[in-house]
Automatic annotation (TrEMBL):
<dbReference type="InterPro" id="IPR030390">
    <property type="entry name" value="MeTrfase_TrmA_AS"/>
</dbReference>
<dbReference type="GO" id="GO:0019843">
    <property type="term" value="F:rRNA binding"/>
</dbReference>
<feature type="binding site">
    <location>
        <position position="186"/>
    </location>
    <ligand>
        <name>S-adenosyl-L-methionine</name>
    </ligand>
</feature>
<keyword id="KW-0808">Transferase</keyword>
<dbReference type="GO" id="GO:0030697">
    <property type="term" value="F:tRNA (uracil(54)-C5)-methyltransferase activity, S-adenosyl methionine-dependent"/>
</dbReference>
<dbReference type="Pfam" id="PF05958">
    <property type="entry name" value="tRNA_U5-meth_tr"/>
</dbReference>
<feature type="binding site">
    <location>
        <position position="235"/>
    </location>
    <ligand>
        <name>S-adenosyl-L-methionine</name>
    </ligand>
</feature>
<dbReference type="InterPro" id="IPR030391">
    <property type="entry name" value="MeTrfase_TrmA_CS"/>
</dbReference>
<feature type="binding site">
    <location>
        <position position="219"/>
    </location>
    <ligand>
        <name>S-adenosyl-L-methionine</name>
    </ligand>
</feature>
<keyword id="KW-0819">tRNA processing</keyword>
<protein>
    <recommendedName>
        <fullName>tRNA/tmRNA (uracil-C(5))-methyltransferase</fullName>
        <ecNumber>2.1.1.35</ecNumber>
    </recommendedName>
</protein>
<dbReference type="GO" id="GO:0000049">
    <property type="term" value="F:tRNA binding"/>
</dbReference>
<comment type="similarity">
    <text>Belongs to the class I-like SAM-binding methyltransferase superfamily. RNA M5U methyltransferase family. TrmA subfamily.</text>
</comment>
<dbReference type="GO" id="GO:0005829">
    <property type="term" value="C:cytosol"/>
</dbReference>
<feature type="binding site">
    <location>
        <position position="214"/>
    </location>
    <ligand>
        <name>S-adenosyl-L-methionine</name>
    </ligand>
</feature>
<feature type="binding site">
    <location>
        <position position="295"/>
    </location>
    <ligand>
        <name>S-adenosyl-L-methionine</name>
    </ligand>
</feature>
<dbReference type="InterPro" id="IPR011869">
    <property type="entry name" value="TrmA_MeTrfase"/>
</dbReference>
Length: 362
């Protein structure tokens, strides 16, 4: 993880540049002005990863500028990270300095926290972990009020839970999310909550079914499922699928069928290219899909998946890369138009942005 250029005095100017960039990319498609959702200026990032750097007898949290892995930026705190992470950083440092069982050959630390106050710390080592480490980690976990995961080559030891629990409010309902260690989660919880509410409103209340591609741990699945009759959701990551299934059960959401397929594989299944054993017992033709929701990786949708979405009257698209979003919209522009769009500032002080569009059939 490279260090961002943290300067709250520049936030408004940087956000204005992002808004203009999104406007320029979507202008060829006659997009309406984007609704802009700002981030908190500080303490917004719920996860952080640090290398440890030795200076004399001490070791420090360290980050690096992009493209430079040899000149560390030594840190005592990290103002873009959550207040919980900033509170944990000095206490963890004191623990590894005061305990050989915890500090010996420790080279990397990862924090995962939630708006709800939960916390998990991953400690990475260049040595095997033994009973002495586990006893010290258990005591530290109790003192800090967190779970701890220890990792070394061929080992993964869990003290407490290997996930945190987030609580997010969407349209007056609180949803609970298990977020596993090592799996993708939205880094900016406040902006994620804005995204969920925007997507909920953009989809609207419907009497037909929803297809969701790239569903992850069910971040969007849970609230969107309350807007439609049934949902067929797909995700390829086994860790994310397991978390999504747990989240569906925890929130008593019963109208979602989740299959572990990539978007490309589901496209083949819907096009009758070939059958998939993981779809056994699922009648794809029984669904009456009126909308599709996609939240693809930075590369966007591949051409075949993009072509698949053309079948649906409504395409709700969340993107972490506006360039690939624009490329996908160009493919769909002859049949669909942009009805709504939004900018979500997940990543202040960087050029990255999250955006959303609702495309409806012309």
């Amino acid at each position: 993880m490279s260090a961002p250029q943290f300067d709250p005095s520049q936030y408004d100017a940087q956000l204005a540049e992002k808004k203009q960039r999104l406007h320029d990319l979507l202008a060829p498609f006659d997009a309406p002005a984007p609704q802009v959702f700002e981030s908190p200026r500080e303490f917004y990032r719920l996860r952080a990863e640090f290398r440890l750097w030795r200076e004399g007898e001490d070791r420090f949290y360290a980050m690096f500028a992009a493209g430079d892995k040899h000149t560390p930026i030594l840190l005592e705190d990290f103002p873009i990270a959550s207040q919980r992470i900033n509170e944990l950083m000095p206490r963890l440092k004191a623990a590894w300095q005061g305990s050989k069982a915890l500090g010996f050959k420790l080279f990397q630390v990862e924090f995962l926290t939630t708006l709800a106050g939960d916390g998990l710390i991953t400690l990475c080592y260049h040595r095997p972990l033994n009973d002495e480490w586990q006893a010290a980690a258990a005591q530290l976990a109790s003192e800090l009020g967190v779970s701890i995961v220890g990792r070394s080559r061929g080992q993964r030891l869990v003290v407490g839970r290997d996930y945190v629990v987030e609580k997010l409010d969407v349209a007056g309902r609180t949803f609970s999310y298990r977020q596993p260690e090592g799996a993708f989660t939205q880094p900016n919880g406040t902006v994620n909550q804005h995204m969920l509410n925007w997507a909920y409103e953009a989809l609207g209340q419907r009497s037909d079914d929803l297809l969701e591609l790239y569903c992850g741990n069910g971040n969007f699945t849970l609230p969107l499922a309350t807007r439609v009759r049934n949902v067929l959701a797909t995700e390829i990551s086994k860790t994310s699928v397991n978390a999504a299934l747990a989240n569906l059960e925890d929130n008593q959401v019963a109208n979602v069928t989740l299959v572990r397929l990539s978007a490309e594989e589901l496209t083949e299944a819907l096009n009758d290219v070939r059958p998939f054993r993981r779809l056994q017992g699922i009648d794809l033709k029984a669904y009456e899909f009126g909308s599709v929701f996609v939240d693809p990786p930075r590369a966007g949708m591949d051409p075949d998946t993009c072509e698949l979405t053309r079948r649906f009257d409504n395409i709700l698209y969340i993107s972490c890369n506006p360039e690939t979003l624009a490329a996908n919209i160009a493919q769909l522009n002859d049949t669909h138009r942009i009805k709504r769009c939004a900018l979500f500032d997940q990543f202040p002080y960087t050029h990255h942005m999250e955006s959303g569009v609702l495309l409806t059939r012309r």
